[in-house]
Specification:
single chain, mainly alpha, elongated, 9 helices
Length: 166
């Protein structure tokens, strides 16, 4: 879509926190109105609708829309966001294994500002499956570069969690 549409979507999302919980349908209506401007086959429509459902506490309604957006060819930054958000929603509805399968390839994707979100969400999915050591390893590995000191130690500890039971 064009930049004007993207700007209006960004502006709508900037108002999200002003909506009370009981006003969630009103917020989703704002997003639905913007989506109505898109071509019927646009992957952005189901993506934005999924985000709106997800953000208003309806992971079950968001997952099929994320699937649709990805099936329609949503790629790049928003495609990666869809995978992260869908994995989180899958975890919320008891399908963490599918979230792990969706996010694991993202560990090898080209690096961007979403890398830590990939690792954090994957760690939550792993924890839901009782794979806490793997999840902790991912979180420590993501945290290590942000520390003012101990980066090497934390990165080594993250690797060691996967190598042994200690």
């Amino acid at each position: 879509m064009n930049q004007d549409w993207e700007d209006r979507v960004t502006a709508a999302w900037a108002t999200f926190d002003t909506y009370a919980e009981e006003d969630a349908p009103d917020f989703r209506a704002v997003i639905d109105a913007l989506v109505a401007e898109l071509p019927d086959d646009s992957p952005l429509g189901p993506f934005e609708r999924a985000c709106a459902w997800d953000s208003t506490g309806h992971s079950d309604k968001a997952v099929p829309l994320y699937r649709e957006a990805l099936a329609r060819g949503l790629t790049g930054y928003k495609g990666r966001r869809a995978k992260i958000q869908m994995s989180s929603s899958l975890r919320n509805i008891g399908q963490a294994e599918e979230g792990v399968k969706l996010l694991t390839p993202e560990l090898d994707a080209p690096s961007d500002e979403l890398d830590d979100a990939v690792r954090a969400t994957l760690a939550l999915c792993l924890s839901s499956l009782g794979r806490d050591r793997e999840g902790l390893s991912l979180v420590l590995g993501a945290l290590a570069p942000h520390l003012p000191r101990y980066q090497r130690s934390m990165a080594n500890y993250a690797r060691a969690l996967l190598e042994s039971g200690d």
